[in-house]
Amino acid sequence: MNFTITPxxxxxxxxxxxxxxxxxxxxRLAVSPGGCSGLNADISVLxxxxxxxxxxxxxxxxxxxxAESRLLLEGVTVDFxxxxxxxxxxxxxxxxxxCSSHSHAVPAGx
Length: 110
What we know:
Blueprint: E1 4-5, H1 7-20, E2 26-33, E3 39-46, E4 54-58, E5 61-65, H2 67-72, E6 77-82, E7 87-92, E8 105-107
Parallel strand pairs: 1-6, 2-5
Antiparallel strand pairs: 2-3, 4-5, 6-7, 7-8
């Protein structure tokens, strides 16, 4: 799997797991087609992976990724933004061409 998580996104994910999960918990990132970057995401903190999820370690974060997410994240940079206009994960997909901006924020709240 060739995708990047920025330090800001890693920190956000790590804090979510620390506050909402126990030992062995991970950050589930279920990505689907759509949105301005070409991606929408459903995020959650789970005690363990769901059936079919791959467990991927990125820095200090354990990710649970469904099969479709692993394909869609190829070449993508996952970032985090916290501004007055939006707070959440942002996906920078160099393959996306549908919008003038190549990012899509996913709300931070679960």
